[in-house]
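Hi team,

As requested, here is the filled-out complex form for the AHM run. I kept the field names the same as last time so the parser does not choke. Let me know if anything looks off before we queue the next batch.

— J.
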Amino acid sequence: MQKNSSFTTPFDFIMEKTSADQTERTSLLLVTGAIEQGGRVMAALLRKGPLVGVTGSALVRNIQGEEVQKLDQIGQDTFLSLFRRSRAVMSVLSEEAEQPDNLPYDQKNPLLVAMDPLDGSSNISVNAPIGSIFAVFHPPLSSSTAPEDLFLKAASPVLSAYLLYSVSTSLVLSFSGETRVFTLDPDTGEFLGADMPFRFPENGKIYSTNEAYLPHWEKSLQEYVFWIKSERNPAMILRYIGALVGDFHRNLLKGGIYLYPAEAGEKSSGKLRLLYEAYPMAHIAKNSGGIATDGKQDILSIVPRSIHQRVPLVVGPSDLVCEFHERTGNPLPGR
Ligand code: AHM
Ligand code: MG
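And here is what came back:
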């Protein structure tokens, strides 16, 4: 890849954004460095896929009752050991572990990380896009918080990120009110990106949802989907990868709304997890001119009741999310 002098790295981004307040700089650089290194490790393995035996089932079920893939375990081990090595992380909550892993640290301002180390597991066996998602929090101020409650009492994420493993490997980082998009140069191992904030384009016309579940949704949602594809001007088109990271990324670049609503029955709270799927995407959306809600309220205003809590998710550029709320009878206050 031709190196362009205006490219920056995640390191440059964090340095620039912490120049006024350096108290958390080192911890954030160490955590971001661990995410980058994990991205390099995962991307290198994924390039070879079945040739090195990393695809396929691990023949066990996780605490959510879902079949664990070998790559789910590899992602979990890779990122957990990198966060441990960073010595800047106090605790890691993961989709793949029932309880958070408390880690040794020696930084003055240690951080909490909630992660989905391998998002889009059902795409692994068909060589379709997958990703890794991270929300980074400051620990709660109260020193009496029990380790198991750290993630329930932390405020909104301070930094959010995802890695998308696809045609190339992307790293999207959101911090201090800005989102930046980087691409891995596999020859040098560097993540390089434009030296400017990334924002959703306006007037997007994509919607992303698993429409097979529509018969189980509330009537107002069914009517909304009928309206966007049949009556809206311009009509919207459906694109669905089936990995939140892939769908969110396409919508971030092209302008589109992602919906994973609650359903009658088993999925009455939706499918996606609040702390390590909805929160980071909501934080990235907010820093890119977007909004994320559970269909009623802002995702970032929801206080978690349990660490693996599920929520319905609606996320995208502000214009499309506001339109969704108006059409479904829950206009967002002040919008
Ligand atoms: P996972 O983290 O176990 O892979 O599950 C989350 C994924 C999301 O990435 C994706 O948006 C959704 O599940 C797809 O679900 P469905 O197959 O029900 O459409
Ligand atoms: Mg997952």
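Two things worth flagging: The chain has a mean pLDDT of 94. The CA atoms of residues 292 and 298 lie 6 Å apart.

Thanks,
J.
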